[in-house]
Structure formats: C-alpha cells, structure tokens
Amino acid sequence: MRIIGPDYLVFGVDDLEGSKTYLTDFGLKPVQLDETGWLFETLDGTGVIIRPKSDPKLPAPLETKNMLRQQVYGVEDMAALDAIEAEMSKDRRVTRLADGAIEFKDDLGFELRFQVTIRRPLSMPAEKINAPGAPAQRAPNELGVTDDMPALPRSLSHVVLFVPDMDKMVSFFCDRLGFVITDVLTGAGPFLRPAANDDHHTLFFIRTPAYMMGCEHLAFHMGGPTELMVAGDRFVRKGYQSFWGPGRHKFGSNWFWYFNSPLGVHFEYDADMDKHDDTWVAREAPNGPEASQMFLLQWREKWAPGGGPEGGSGKP
C-alpha cells in the first residue's frame, strides 16, 4: 500500500495558548483552521493540529489521557486509499469522509486517518560541506553559517508510540498496511517505514505498560546538522528545556535534539537520516545507551578562550 508517512498529528491540549507559542517558537507556521483549531505546519505543509482538549471536533481521547487524538497519514493517490479501505473494512468500521479521506482505529485503539497527502514538493538545497579530498560544495566566499541563517523544520519526519502489545501493532502495520521493519532495538521495539517512503523510519514502537499508551515524541526533518544545531540553540535561548541531545543516533544515523513540550510529548529536530530500499536486511541490537546513539553532546552557554591572567584563565 502506497503510504508516504505522517501528514499531521492531532492533539487535544490543556493549554492552547502555551502550545501555540511553543509550536511557533519551534519553527512551525501557524494557520488558523477555524474558531478553535490551529495547524502548525512545516515548509512542506505537514505538521501538528491542536485544539482545546474539550473541543467536540476532536476524536475521543485515549484512556491514558495522552494528548494525542489522531494520526493522519498521507498516501500517494485515491487508489491507495481504496486499497486501505478494502483491507480495513474486513474487520472494523471504516468511515469515508466528504473529502475522500478514511478514518478507523488500529488494533490498540489509536485513531487513524488516511488521506491523499497534502505534502508540498520541496526544492531546497541540503546543507553544504567542504572536506579535503572531495570537491568543495560551497563556492569561494560562500559562508557555511551566519547568525541570521534560516533553520526551519522542512517536514514531519516520524512518530514514536508507547504501545502495550507489540505483536498486535507490528502485525497490524506490517501485515495489514505494508510497513517494513528496518531495524529493531531489543527490549524497546522496531523501526518501520511505509512502502512509499525510503526514510529509515517514519514510525517507532516502544513497549510499555498499558497505562503509558500514547505518543512519546514526534520529529521534524531539518536541512542538515548545522540547521538542527542552530534551531536547537535558538530554542534553548528562548527558555525551552532540552530533554536529550544534541547527538546522533546509530539506527537511522539521524542527528537529533529532543525538547519537552506543553503537549505532553517530546518534540525532536532531526537531520540526515539514512535511506533504505527492499534489499536492506534489518539489524537488531539490545536497547541501551550504546545502541541509542553514536555520540551525545550537551548544550552550554557560548564561551571564548581568554588571553592569559589579564585576559582570562583560558579555561572553559
């Protein structure tokens, strides 16, 4: 089934105004949908929809009270939607909406919506690097970093879910929706990608007790590691709390930087994720610090070396 990946995640939030400020400061563009709903979009149009948690336009909440209300997936065309509807209608209620999208629940009760993707094509350069032994990617006098350089999320990358029944979720997404496992962290769960996306993962499951079921984090692709670092630094300086990072994962190879949020989940900037095709053989490693990252850095205030006793100690 030609599923591309997440178009939107929908949340019912406790603090609408605080969430709006957070998402704007994170680098997403606010678009008012109606009197109570807001879309915060990336450069390709994917993003996050928020409403007050009591809004009747929202799907019902999870029993755990996690603020995630719905995952909205984009597909290539109406034929893909028809195929998903036919498969899901075998054993559950599927609602076809006026705009052609379909809605149903997965085997654990997460609300899902599938639609012809709203992703806008992007034509933007990746981060350029200069390295000995390779042709220079930046022209003479072209700077690699500036104080006012843009560093905005380009696309909604992936979703991570806490799930109490791993077998049910893997079977549902792989056997019924055509997702492929790319790698597995034993003791946590698998990384998955859909058929129409070659990113290492758009979905990751972490096995948890039932009371934790919900969204753990969502991630946004940046244009490269420098954009990630610049965006994260700006975010910290606005007063937001770093949760994990910056660093670089092993599985997926993506750079990462996670932040706490008022939506009850973590938000991640990511960059430079691996691409895979159907010849890839999934790896497996025990979950833990060694498997979770190649290296981990820590943000600190800017510093400069001094010039000795009169100009400073020269020590950080």
From TrEMBL:
It holds the Pfam family Glyoxalase. It comes from the Bacteria. Residues 155-272 form the VOC domain. The lineage of its organism: Bacteria, Pseudomonadati, Pseudomonadota, Alphaproteobacteria, Rhodobacterales. This is Glyoxalase.
